[in-house]
Every structure is written in C-alpha cells, then in structure tokens.
Amino acid sequence: MPTYSRKGAHVDGKREMTLDEFKEWIRGFDKDKDGRLSRDELREAIRATRAWFPGWKAKRGIKAADVNGDGFIDDTEIMVLMEFAQKNLGIRWFSRINRDELQEAIRSTRAWFPNWKAKRGVKAANVNGDGLIDDCEITALMEFAEKRVALHGFKEWVKQFDVDKDGRMNRDELREAIRSTGAWFPGWKANNGVKSADANGDGFIDDSEITALMEFAEKNLSIKIMP
C-alpha cells in the first residue's frame, strides 16, 4: 500500500504523478478487482491522502467523473477523475506524453482508431508545437478527452433509435429520439435536425455527422451533454 505524507494530498510522498502512477495508485483501492472504482473505494483513496471530508469529496468525484451514470468510475473515465484530483486533492501531473504514448493510453480504453485519435489529441493540446504534451498542456488534453467521452455517450444514446440498424439516423428515427426527450414538436425538430447535421445531403445522419447532431441537440433540445 502506498505511503502518504500528512501535508495535504501527497501520494507516495509526492504531489506530482504521471498518468501511469495515478492509475497504479488508484488501482490499489479497487477492493473487488472489477476494474472500476465505487464511491466507497474512492472515499478510501481520498481518505488515504489525508484530505478533509473524504465522503463528501468521493460523492463529488463520482458525480464529476462518472460519465455513463452507472455509479462507478472505469478506465474510460480515469482522465476526468484525474482532473477532479488535480482541482480538489492538490495533485499535479508531470512529464511529457508523445503521440505513441497517447495512442497506447487511448488503446487501453478499447476506443476505436487510437492512432487517429492520438494524432488529433496531440494537435488539440500541443500548444507550443514541440510534438509533446507537457504538464502545462494537460488541461487541454483533458478537455479533448472529455469531449470524446461526451460524444461517445451521445452516440450510444442515439443508437437506441436506429431501428433498421444501418448505422445511420433517418428523419423518422430522429423524431422518435426527440420524442423520447419530451420535447415539443418532435417532427418539426427532426426535420431541422437532419437539415442541420446532414452535411452530404443524403437524408441521413451518419457517424461522420454525429458531432453536428450533438451540437444541434444541445442548442435545440435542452440536452446538456456532460463530459
């Protein structure tokens, strides 16, 4: 079990950790070894840092990082938990990440196209243009990761209404999705949604157009897509 200083949130005597060190540390509190952190397990991790109010902070940590709402923090949500720890537990991240390392991190989440996403992640976060993401740029990388997680969650919700399972949304399917939110005038809004997001004009919304549909949903359906 890691050792801790009594001065704030020192982990292994340090305030600074790499992503791998944070993952390794947090795994030490996964008592049932299911690869996820429950609120009780997170509370014990926070308590180990000597932070005040571990129960309250664990509740806030789950609320902040549990993107899919299942009550646990899994590997795909770990970067959001990192940001929470940085803001609330006084833990800082250090070292630099290159594209290959980011690709491996993305691959570990079982996400598709890790190489392409790593390339986009470096492009989004590498402010100084040296091809590496350092601790000054980690927040931009977290924002990129949060957007990808939010988009993934929106895709999973939309898939429920793809009745013919062709991987695309037609106007009728979008109308049913909008109706499920309780929004008024679902037919009219579905028509506007397809018009707004259907970039290639084929009458369907495919995977390449899903981001535009997500933006439409946020603006017109009062859907708040949480990262």
TrEMBL record:
Single GO MF annotation: calcium ion binding
Positions of the EF-hand domain: 17-52, 57-88, 149-184, 195-220
Gene3D superfamilies in alphabetical order: EF-hand
Domain of life: Eukaryota
Keyword Repeat set for record: yes
InterPro entries attached to this UniProt entry: Centrin_CML-like, EF-hand-dom_pair, EF_Hand_1_Ca_BS, EF_hand_dom
PANTHER family registered for this protein in UniProt: CALCIUM BINDING PROTEIN (PTHR23050)
Name of this protein: EF-hand domain-containing protein
Organism: Rhododendron simsii
